[in-house]
């Protein structure tokens, strides 16, 4: 479970899908979650994701992911509460007070709509991240490259995209290692307030930067020592081929996309 952000070897329909199908799913969901701002539409999309995770047997890994990004989601939620505190919105109000600073009038207004905005943006970010990790958990490095090459993508570009899908989990793993080291030195990151957590996360950002640079240097040296040549034509013993499962998954993705857009149009509230 410690390597939850890396490829997990399982015998599930998600793992058996054509990597191109999952890559298209990732692109569509990334675009969709970038403009959908309706709470109803996002909740529907979350249910679709949940069904995919449970049927693909990766639900427990997504729970671990949620636990890891909960501080980020809480920060986004609180940020929108702060930004909305000085904006008067229509609808039920929790607390509202007028005051002045140096003769300038201000209104502090905490509305239920502010909570709605915070929840919407937090859910959007989580779905964006989840779409990426759904592909990572179910598709290994070679499958990503093979799928892109089948689209006539140059090997150098396909290798670079596949490497990105591998490096990000490595960065997150390095971050977890640094956090564990800081905990052993007395830095509290769990049993403290949300603001203290964000401050402590900033503290570990500098050593994380140096670890990431070191990892990048190691990868570059490995590519140099093994004389990686992108001009050499490569073949593969394994062939990828779309099946009826890919057609079904693509149909579900298309239907979910259409329904989400309809819900976005019908239930959108200006945020």
TrEMBL record:
GO terms for cellular component: plasma membrane. It holds the Pfam family CbiQ. It is a multi-pass membrane protein. Keywords: Cell membrane, Membrane, Transmembrane, Transmembrane helix. It is found in: Membrane. The chain crosses the membrane at residues 23-52, 72-98, 118-141, 153-172, 208-226, 247-269. It comes from the Bacteria. This is Cobalt transporter.
């Amino acid at each position: 479970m410690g390597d939850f952000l890396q490829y997990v070897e399982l015998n599930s329909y998600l793992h058996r899908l054509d990597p191109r199908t999952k890559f298209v799913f990732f692109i569509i969901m990334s675009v969709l979650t970038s403009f959908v701002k309706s709470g109803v539409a996002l909740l529907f999309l979350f249910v679709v994701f949940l069904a995919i995770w449970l049927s693909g047997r990766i639900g427990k890994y997504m729970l671990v992911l949620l636990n890891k990004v909960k501080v980020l989601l809480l920060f986004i939620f609180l940020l929108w509460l702060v930004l909305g505190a000085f904006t008067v919105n229509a609808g039920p109000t929790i607390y509202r007070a007028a005051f002045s600073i140096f003769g300038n009038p201000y209104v502090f207004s905490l509305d239920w709509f502010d909570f709605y905005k915070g929840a919407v943006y937090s859910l959007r970010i989580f779905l964006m991240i989840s779409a990426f990790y759904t592909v990572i958990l179910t598709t290994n490095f070679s499958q990503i490259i093979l799928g892109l090459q089948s689209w006539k993508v140059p090997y150098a570009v396909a290798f670079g995209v596949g490497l990105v899908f591998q490096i990000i989990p490595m960065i997150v793993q390095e971050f977890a290692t640094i956090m564990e080291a800081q905990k052993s030195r007395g830095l509290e990151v769990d049993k403290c307030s949300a603001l203290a957590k964000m401050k402590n996360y900033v503290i570990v950002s500098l050593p994380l930067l140096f670890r990431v640079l070191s990892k990048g240097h190691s990868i570059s040296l490995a590519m140099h020592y093994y004389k990686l040549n992108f001009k050499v034509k490569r073949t593969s013993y394994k062939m990828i081929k779309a099946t009826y499962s890919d057609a079904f998954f693509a149909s579900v993705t298309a239907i979910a996309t259409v329904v989400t857009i309809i819900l976005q149009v019908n239930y959108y509230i200006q945020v």
